[in-house]
Amino acid sequence: MDKLVIRGGKSLSGEIRASGAKNSALPIIASALLSSENVIIRNLPHLQDITTMINLLGTMGVEPVVNEDLSVELDSNLLKSVVAPYELVKTMRASILVLGPLLAKNGYAEVSLPGGCAIGSRPVDLHIRGLEAMGAEVVVEDGYIKAKTDGRLKGGNVFFDTVTVTGTENIMMAATLADGVTSIENAAREPEVVDLAECLIAMGAKIEGHGTDLIRVTGVEKLHGCDYSVVPDRIETGTYLVAAAATGGKVKVKDTRPDILDAVLVKLEEAGAKIETGDDWISLDMEGRTLKAVSVKTAPYPAFPTDMQAQFVALNAVAEGTSTVIETIFENRFMHVQEMMRMGADISVEGNTAIVRGLTELHPAPVMATDLRASASLVIAGLVAKGGETVIDRIYHIDRGYECIEEKLQLLGADISRLPE
Ligand code: UD1
Question: Rounded to two decimals, what is the model's pTM?
Fold first, then answer.
């Protein structure tokens, strides 16, 4: 397995470009299954999860065409199979996003149950109940979710008792081809849900209220093709900004969206960073100031994102003062803490709260990536740790969500390299 080797202690400085958002691209690729014509998707990040989703559609017969500019063209009229097999689903939970579109367009779908996940149990019961509220018959047998509908799905009222991002996306996609109006209550308001809604609207779907907690979808008989570019990745952007802050640096991220990063930018300012923004860029400058510890509590958008929690634990580990980091979305999402403690961090975890006592430095150590965002936090810790090499093992987790991470960090002056297996 590849490793990352980081010789930390340098302040990051320079400019990079944000990639397209993985969490937008995944449902948008799945949404091509709904269309009766060719769909072209642009600004896709070059990531393992994106390849997995494209391959998943490929196994169903879609024959994806990847163009030179990394856009992908999908023609779901070529669909031969409505089965999402275990071999692919087990590598990526987001494969569940094909369930709604397959069922809505073809009346039947079989999607393997996603396996266990490193960051908690992450069930899919809300996706299933939502589809049942639209008239689907769903059984779970032999490890597969088997869903069918007699004719079109029916518009219905779907209420989520927990805010679920992919759950909202699955139901919103299914509802575009249903007969009648579907209301999704307590819907996720994440920018990636909004991006998917805009892509569906570009295909001719009738959707209102995306970006609020009540989405209304009026079903249409057919969706047409579209040419759509996915939104920039707010989590990737936030990760580089935190890395800049933690190393006392000055970094500008271009081709991004400041308006969808408010909760993160507010916390970075509280930590002492000077933040400036334009329409499509954000700059961060520590201006020689001491980093101050900031407490955060994760919650659904627009509150502080769980996908930025680990990076802020790394930042707080080298900030002045003690902070609390409360995780309310996922159980068992503090695996980075043990690894950071191997680098000398002073952190204790009680239930869903990490208490981080800031230190002036961390020490290099061999550490192991355990999930995508935990890995990003270890990279940040490695960039801070002076006096040797931090070697991060199992970085395939990072490659699932960060395009060209070492190249981008090298552009910012970091001493980081990949050690092939
Ligand atoms: C998505 C994101 C992920 C992010 C998460 C929360 C994608 C591909 N992934 O994951 O990066 O960390 O949102 O912002 O977009 N739940 C249930 N039953 C369900 C579904 C969810 O109980 O059927 C619970 C989960 O266990 C969790 C909470 O709901 O506690 C939120 O999870 P959810 O928003 O569904 O996460 P994902 O959509 O899987």
Answer: 0.97
